[in-house]
Amino acid sequence: MKNNFKLLLSLYTLLVVGLSPFALADSVHQSTNIGDDGKWEKSRIRRGFTIYVRDREAAKSDILPIKVEGIINAPIASIMENLRTVEGSEDWTPDLLKKTTLKDLGPREAITYSLTDMSWPVYDRTLILHNKLHLDKERKLLFVLSKTVPHKKAPQPERTIEAFVGYSNMGFRPVSRNKTYVELTAFIDPRGSIPSWLINFYQTSWPVDFLEAVEKRANEHNNPLRPGLQTMLDELLSLMKWDAETYTPLASARP
User: Fold this and answer.
1) Is the pLDDT of residue 243 over 60?
2) What is the pLDDT of residues 143-175, one digit of tens each?
3) Is residue 79 within a helix (H) or strand (E), and if so which, with residue range?
4) Is the Cα torsion angle 144, 147, 150, 154 positive or negative in sign?
5) Pair 140, 153: CB distance under 8 Å
6) What is the CATH number of the domain that holds 215?
7) Is residue 130 domain-resident?
8) Residue 67's domain spans which residues?
9) What pTM did the predictor assign?
């Protein structure tokens, strides 16, 4: 199977768009803590990223959720701005045919539609995602949360299948001005007739390819972070007791 199959699975995170200032606290807490009970099995280390799959008993599904941890060599502000920007996403996302905003709910939240090209005879896949930004104050991570939602105005091209994203949680924290820690957990079902064992096989490779594409884009297009997101980043740095200018711990926070 060509590489664009795994890009189907990564499409759900493509340019995820900001997060809701009014999201219910309980649902956000539950979402960002999926998989934090330790029921993960280490699969491999790939190009510096550690990849885990969900314990089969805990997963309760033939398709296994995944978790990835590592460092992106790019500034967190540039990463967040590029993930928030829908326009031009086709320029850096392999096999992405189209990505549009169905409903813009502010700088931290939106509903998006994506269409990705698949190799024959696999049908193209569509995704309708509700994307939100959430600051986890306890874990000190700036999360991009995405999940599949229904939308009456979404295009319905012939010979396509809508993929399903149960959850996608990408958490970011600066390590320095130009390095960012990332933690990604996700459950994605491409649907259709693709066997679950093949999906599980590709899930140990697509996250790294996607995160490396994010890294490349963030370094090539280091645009200023929009004010609505900058406020959340400033709050994260304050929680970390870091200087917002130097991206280093404040003198009062040093041992």
Assistant:
1) yes
2) 989 888 888 888 788 888 888 888 889 999 999
3) helix 76-84
4) positive
5) no
6) 3.30.530.20
7) yes
8) 4-224
9) 0.81
